[in-house]
Write a structure and sequence with these properties.
273 residues, alpha/beta, Rossmann fold, 5-stranded mixed β-barrel, 6 helices, 9 strands, 32% helix, binds hypoxanthine
Length: 273
């Protein structure tokens, strides 16, 4: 097998034949940012299926492409469609696009997702800035041979989410008149939502919200020296009561409702970074 750096170089070289824009900011469009692209001046789009060595997304409602363009004057690259472990992607496939972003020059990564609320402070539709995460229930994507050119063998994780960006995001939200919560995101593999006992466990170990994405992307980004900001839409409240069950439809509906606010915050944030 070709080595990782060679593959990354091939993907990056291919992208550069299609698009000359040099992005400094990367954005992973998870739930809540589905219409974000409408806020951009798009320069070019490349389907994941065209990209050498890229995995292909299988989740309904997630298109799979890289979109290059500008938010105000800022050059950005957007991942429309991300990869999840529950789809059968390996952790290395999940983070491959993040590493491609790094090779393209991205310094800051902005991420959104949908998450189940575990903290009793949360209600459905809340936005939560992720201040820290628990990745221990997922597979660490850096297992295996370390690529020293990308980052160190034992990355520091004392501030995976940039405090400086968090404070900018809070002041943007305040100016826009939106309430934002803060909390710890606990990553799980899915695809099952959690049992009642599992929600209790996550709460007991310090999780405020739980979701099936993000932590591996963040680990890869931090490994390779990027600054990271991430935000969740709280789409359900775990299984708090005997008769409360969670459906994918309910999660999508809550995410859609918070979408305009989330989009506004990310747009402003990209323009001040
Ligand atoms: N658990 C895990 N992932 C999720 C949830 C949840 O309750 N809600 C949205 N994504």
């Amino acid at each position: 097998m070709e080595n990782l750096l060679q593959q990354l170089n091939e993907t990056t070289a291919f992208i550069k034949t299609k698009c000359s824009l040099q992005p400094l900011i990367g954005i992973v469009l998870g739930s809540g940012l589905g219409n974000f692209v409408n806020e951009m001046t798009v320069e070019c789009e490349i389907d994941y299926s065209e990209l050498p060595h890229f995995p292909v997304s299988t989740v309904k409602g997630h298109s799979g492409k890289l979109i290059f363009g500008k938010i105000d004057a800022k050059n950005v690259v957007v991942m429309a469609g991300r990869f999840h472990y529950y789809e059968g992607c390996t952790p290395q496939q999940i983070i491959y696009p993040i590493r491609v972003m790094k090779m393209l020059g991205v310094q800051t990564l902005l991420i959104s997702n949908a998450a189940g609320g575990v903290s009793t402070n949360f209600k459905v539709g809340d936005m939560m800035i992720i201040t820290d995460h628990i990745s221990l229930f997922t597979i660490n994507p850096l297992l295996g041979k370390n690529e020293d050119a990308l980052g160190t063998r034992f990355p520091d994780m004392s501030e995976p989410y940039s405090k400086a960006i968090i404070s900018k995001a809070k002041s943007i939200a305040k100016d826009l008149g939106y309430e934002v919560k803060e909390g710890v995101y606990c990553g799980v593999t899915g695809p099952t939502f959690e049992t009642r006992a599992e929600y209790r466990l996550i709460k007991a170990i310090g999780g405020d919200a739980v979701g099936m994405s993000t932590v591996q992307e963040v680990i890869a980004a931090v490994h390779t020296g990027m600054k990271v900001f991430a935000m969740s839409i709280i789409t359900d409240l775990g299984i708090r009561e005997e008769d409360n069950v969670i459906t994918h439809e309910e999660v999508l509906a809550a995410a859609n409702e918070a979408e305009p606010k989330m989009t506004a915050i990310f747009k402003e944030l990209a323009s001040v970074l």
